[in-house]
Amino acid sequence: MNDSPSPIPDSRRVEVVAGAITDARGRVLLARRTEGRDLAGLWEFPGGKREPGESPEQALVRELREELGIEVRVGPPLIAVAQQYPDKRLRLDVRSVTRWRGTPRGHEGQALAWVPRDKLPGYAMPPADQPVVAALLQPDRYLVTPVPASPADDDAWLDRLRGALRNGVSRVQVRLPGVDVARRRALVTAAAMDCARAGAELLVNGDAALAQDLGLGLHLPAAQLRGLAERPVAAEVPLAASCHDAGELRLAEAIGCDFAVVGPVRATPTHPGAPGIGWAAFEALREHVSLPVYAIGGLGLDDIAQARSHGAQGIAAIRGLWP
């Protein structure tokens, strides 16, 4: 399914910096693109193009001074999103900003809005800005459960799941290939109760009927995704997919998946003999969609910052997140 269009040359790559400017109430500042610009009328995180010789921090300070009339202290990186448009390749480097002097005003005629975080998804945005919203709101780690070796290990498996939840995991995929129907239902039911108590989201791998019966989300393996022409669950049900190429990613976006997983980035014992695609290939894939995309394959908590620097929502993992 790798039907990627011809890539835009690197010579037409545009480096953009932006700030996720957050006030003391937790609201985030958005600016509306003015008439006469590309994507006019859409809302975006304030910022602009990085000039030759500027560091990202220098460019963001300058842009926010020119656009909003404020002097900012640039915080840590949030996410850097590569996005391919019909006429250019854009890389949006977003930094957290919580400290500044002055009152933000639209010095270029742009409307501004202070938006509560939970309202951000309701604002129409350019494709590159949409993963930034996900980075602000959604988990940066996605646990894929291993398979308990035998029924005698099921209680220990549930204990380890609870340990992962205590360690900060708040999005879980239960993947139980080869486990019989009755045992799978019992494990998923118990896992769902633990996740509900912890405020975590649970998705079931591949079993739409079980997910529907238990009121849980659904994670589509790539083979199952490729057989679909529309969303297989209701809009309010969390839906994700495993993808390996640009065609699968675009299909996941087209049927309304909420996020996707791409990899393996590195070689992993789960797929012996399969080389990892590496971060450059991961970034090249994610620029075809505006979905949040997790990187998977030999990754752990120490890789989250690097994953975010290549446009990932975060990391998905079995061993890296399983206590």
Automatic annotation (TrEMBL):
Example GO molecular function: hydrolase activity
Q: Which cofactor does it need?
A: Mg(2+)
Nudix hydrolase domain residues: 11-138
Q: Which Gene3D superfamilies match?
A: Aldolase class I, Nucleoside Triphosphate Pyrophosphohydrolase
Judged by the first EC level, this protein's enzyme class is hydrolase
Superkingdom of origin: Bacteria
Q: Which InterPro entries match?
A: Aldolase_TIM, Mutator_MutT, MutT-like, MutY_C, Nudix_hydrolase, NUDIX_hydrolase-like_dom_sf, NUDIX_hydrolase_CS, NUDIX_hydrolase_dom
Keywords from UniProt, A to Z, are: DNA damage, DNA repair, DNA replication, Hydrolase, Magnesium, Metal-binding, Mutator protein
Q: Does the keyword DNA repair apply?
A: yes
Q: Which reaction does it catalyse?
A: 8-oxo-dGTP + H2O = 8-oxo-dGMP + diphosphate + H(+); 8-oxo-GTP + H2O = 8-oxo-GMP + diphosphate + H(+)
- EC number(s) for this protein? 3.6.1.55
Report whether Cytoplasm shows up as a keyword of the record: no
**Pfam families from the UniProt entry:** NUDIX_4, TMP-TENI
What does the similarity note say?
Belongs to the Nudix hydrolase family.
**PANTHER family named in the record:** 8-OXO-DGTP DIPHOSPHATASE, NUDIX HYDROLASE FAMILY PROTEIN
**What protein name is recorded for this chain?**
8-oxo-dGTP diphosphatase
